[in-house]
Amino acid sequence: MSAPDARLAEAVREISADMKQRRDRGTVASYIPELAQVDPGAFGLCVVDAQGNVAEGGDAAVPFSIQSISKVFTLTLALGMAGDRLWERVGREPSGSAFNSVVQLEYERGIPRNPFINAGAIAVTDLILAGHKPREALGEILRFMRFVSDDDTVSIDERVAASEQRTGFRNAALANYMKSFGVITNPVDFTLGVYFHHCAIAMSCRQLAMAGRFLAHGGRHPTTGHAVIGPQRARRINALMLTCGHYDGSGEFAYRVGLPGKSGVGGGVLAIVPGQASIAVWSPGLDASGNSHLGRVALQELSKRMGWSIFG
Amino acid sequence: MSAPDARLAEAVREISADMKQRRDRGTVASYIPELAQVDPGAFGLCVVDAQGNVAEGGDAAVPFSIQSISKVFTLTLALGMAGDRLWERVGREPSGSAFNSVVQLEYERGIPRNPFINAGAIAVTDLILAGHKPREALGEILRFMRFVSDDDTVSIDERVAASEQRTGFRNAALANYMKSFGVITNPVDFTLGVYFHHCAIAMSCRQLAMAGRFLAHGGRHPTTGHAVIGPQRARRINALMLTCGHYDGSGEFAYRVGLPGKSGVGGGVLAIVPGQASIAVWSPGLDASGNSHLGRVALQELSKRMGWSIFG
Amino acid sequence: MSAPDARLAEAVREISADMKQRRDRGTVASYIPELAQVDPGAFGLCVVDAQGNVAEGGDAAVPFSIQSISKVFTLTLALGMAGDRLWERVGREPSGSAFNSVVQLEYERGIPRNPFINAGAIAVTDLILAGHKPREALGEILRFMRFVSDDDTVSIDERVAASEQRTGFRNAALANYMKSFGVITNPVDFTLGVYFHHCAIAMSCRQLAMAGRFLAHGGRHPTTGHAVIGPQRARRINALMLTCGHYDGSGEFAYRVGLPGKSGVGGGVLAIVPGQASIAVWSPGLDASGNSHLGRVALQELSKRMGWSIFG
Amino acid sequence: MSAPDARLAEAVREISADMKQRRDRGTVASYIPELAQVDPGAFGLCVVDAQGNVAEGGDAAVPFSIQSISKVFTLTLALGMAGDRLWERVGREPSGSAFNSVVQLEYERGIPRNPFINAGAIAVTDLILAGHKPREALGEILRFMRFVSDDDTVSIDERVAASEQRTGFRNAALANYMKSFGVITNPVDFTLGVYFHHCAIAMSCRQLAMAGRFLAHGGRHPTTGHAVIGPQRARRINALMLTCGHYDGSGEFAYRVGLPGKSGVGGGVLAIVPGQASIAVWSPGLDASGNSHLGRVALQELSKRMGWSIFG
């Protein structure tokens, strides 16, 4: 790692310090018991540029539960495995409703609107599972996360996985509902087991920013040279993040931040500056749409200071 | 006007020729009787770059009914008049439903999801009207369209306006519904009259591409130097076009084309390449979501050839 | 009029006295300004039996706005005019939603679920109008009301009609929405004008109980001998009142009272004891579903004391 | 058993013969594989009057899967166990949607609209289970069915139960969804296991008509003298059957037949003539709402010939 651009390093440092002090921190997710115990005062930010320079601030080295951010990586993996057949089971439109809504599934005969709402991500997980044993599929996902983050220490927080498995009735409803339409092909418990576990992957902002680099650079890690996916597919995943990455707050994120991004209820956000940088931010308190409150504020500020909006 | 980039001129020429010949042309909108008579074989394309160079092909000089594309300009005008108070009456999220759905209005107490679905655009028109006479508001809108397009010949097709006024019961339902929640403040007939008329503005691809230039260049016409709006607002309108500009096909457009855009049921699409170009395309046949079928295909091809996607 | 059954007379007297004193009176409807001024302390009750005996208590002689109770009579009239063709435009199922919901209309392509929700009653009014002038249709409805109540003094409260006409945007939304599907065939303003006026008919409990007698007696006035409709149709209107007569409180009314009934937001309720009696009750305060609170309580008590439930 | 009224016996005989020959038989339910194999030509009808006289025709002695008709009996049993506390978990309003819709659950926070749609019946089963072992709860239900039918041979068709358990993903979705709101308190698999098994009870028309007698006679078996429930509760269960007993065809059944009734996807219907008779009919072919087509036709004819409508 070499030194990042001084202006970027300063922006990251100042924003991190500012966010640490803010009192409007949102509300830590309570529906997964294990997540409810996270310190709401935590804040981390990490940016990795095209040259591999890292700028970071706050708790950028502290691992947190990436939750729905994992959906970006399972989508990437599933597209590599199933190709565009994936889109027979999942749509590409914003949902216009909450992350765990079942209403849309009924109106659209079991086909989830996009791969970033829970139902869609469960369907994607089902494609990865594809008749294998849950343990094998999970191993595949974990290997992929370690590969893209270039870090073999990435692992699953088993307590979080177990906590969600005990309480994830809403996700079980979604999975069973899709199963009744044939959209889920493996046993529901198998698919849900893999889903809960990949959501429980723990990563630090630094690890996550590293993992997102291929999306900023045409599907290829700029420093390691690893080709993860083709450039068109990388662009398209970015497009999906922009339109669907923040549940029913996706429009707001695009409006304020102007970058493709994906949030998780653990308080993390991965954001991509095409051609320039991969960003990870973490602040556990969520807004009403279930997205990290200060995570969004920090990204809005950073995007503005760096002139990174993709909209001009 | 000087000569455009040769590669761009060639791409526009080839794509136009190709689109003229395609047999999959979608279905011309029939719900406004006057629009149903348009020739489905028409195709026009025009690109204006930062230097004011124009590349065009096909029926780029033929005026068509811009319909919902006018919503981009009424939003710009209303933001200039009312500022961010506008967002008390209209949301910023994709709707996840058809352009004229009333369901969402009921679940969200009369507040439309965004300014680009019909209900939202009617609410925006109501803000422009703001107690004035319909004739005055309409004059204001028309002056604005002529100003941004730098063309005093832009005008309203009265037959189309009359046709929609006679048959626009669905829009009357939306307007009355919002009125019952106090979101519409002028007499319903006044607001609808202005709305139907600005949707009936006729422009050619060339006029429309000229009119969109300020959105590609930070709110300012790059050649005339006219400051239309501030740069942040221009970015944000682009963001709204990306997430909400194609009704329930917005995700698909972002995924395939990768540019902010706004479609109209007349078959036109305005698309913006931030910092580089403004594009207008016209093909009257629509897809199932109510967006120009070949318009989208042409923009996908053009964006790909020119490497214009904002997603990398 | 001869003397009613002594036990009935006593029940009516005691219940009326009890209801007058109760403090839980519900909330007077505020959405029609003129209705908001009614005294919440009013209470009237009138029962007419098969022999024409009248038992009444409280403010049984005070006229009130019958509002949606008029829908029972316009349905009767329209069935006489159009026969079962009426059911091509209106369904016969409970709505499972509020009296003025537009959501169902969208999911079912403009066909209202039943003739007793607002949309359905507007469609029925449109059938009565059938190309005539609003004044003529309204005259027809008023003549019918006077005929069935055997009382030529029944009339329309023009202030209430005007008040609703000025503020009835939600109903205008419903009518325009149905018009867009061709379910409304007259000009929307005509149909709404007639609808608002027949809802504004003012009647006392005594007049209303008299008017309902034909429904209790196989379609025929037991004393005057007037044949209003056939016996099967009378039964079916009673069935519709039972399943759909109280909006989204219909199940509750059937469960507690056990009689076919129709409520209005003016606080009136018409209830039918097949073969035995016609009942009108009036108490202006409404419950959360928009039905008269004490009206329902009084009917529950009366039905219980007299053993009138149709369910055993 | 003594001889029934001659006119009733003749009506039952003639209607049974007529129904056997009709060609419009509806469609046998296919979503439970085991049920799809039933002979669509079957038809049975049985009426038991207050004196215990039996009139029957067709396949009245052939057992069929009672499916959702069991919900009437589990509701009765649960009301006896939990009393009106039951209504904290289940509503009493018609649903306005399909028998297995999940949309309403989302809009009403996990509380099913009534005990006769699948979600409501699952919640009722959960109340009966109440911490006991599934086997014990099922034993309790079976004992109750044998008690009310006065027939110890009533039993569960294990193949049907197993078939539904393997394929009942939609019900699993409903149960998990309610569990996420705390409306289901036992393990989901336990509650569903009991639910699938009581739906798989097999009874003949004669057994079923016998079982329904207490609802026709104020909660008491008129011949055995068994008091099953109080008279008010019997009336109220009848009211619920009238408003909610046929899913989204409840209004139609009330309109045409005019009796409280409950249908099952096995093609059976139980109907009650308060004070007079209990009726069971069976014809496997269903209409679009999931109710027995000829079952409804036969009941309409029988009700008309006998003058049994509760609506006059």
Task: List strands and helices in order, with pairings.
The structure is a homotetramer of 312-residue chains.
Chain A: H1 6-21, E1 27-28, E2 44-49, E3 54-58, E4 64-65, H2 70-82, H3 103-107, H4 118-129, H5 134-149, E5 155-156, H6 158-167, H7 169-180, H8 188-199, E6 201-203, H9 205-211, H10 213-216, H11 231-244, H12 250-256, E7 261-263, E8 268-273, E9 277-282, E10 285-286, H13 293-306
Antiparallel strand pairs in A: 1-10, 2-3, 2-9, 4-6, 5-6, 7-8, 8-9
Helix pairs in contact in A: 1-13, 2-4, 4-7, 4-8, 5-8, 5-9, 6-8, 7-8, 11-12
Q: Label the overall shape of chain A.
A: globular
CATH topology name of the largest domain in chain A, in short, is Beta-lactamase
Number of strands of chain A: 10
Helix amount of chain A:
40-55%
Structure summarized in a few sentences:
The structure is a homotetramer of 312-residue chains. With 312 residues, chain A is of the alpha+beta class. Chain A has 13 helices and 10 strands.
What are the defining features of this structure?
Beta-lactamase; 312 residues; homotetramer; alpha+beta; 2 domains; 5-stranded antiparallel β-sheet
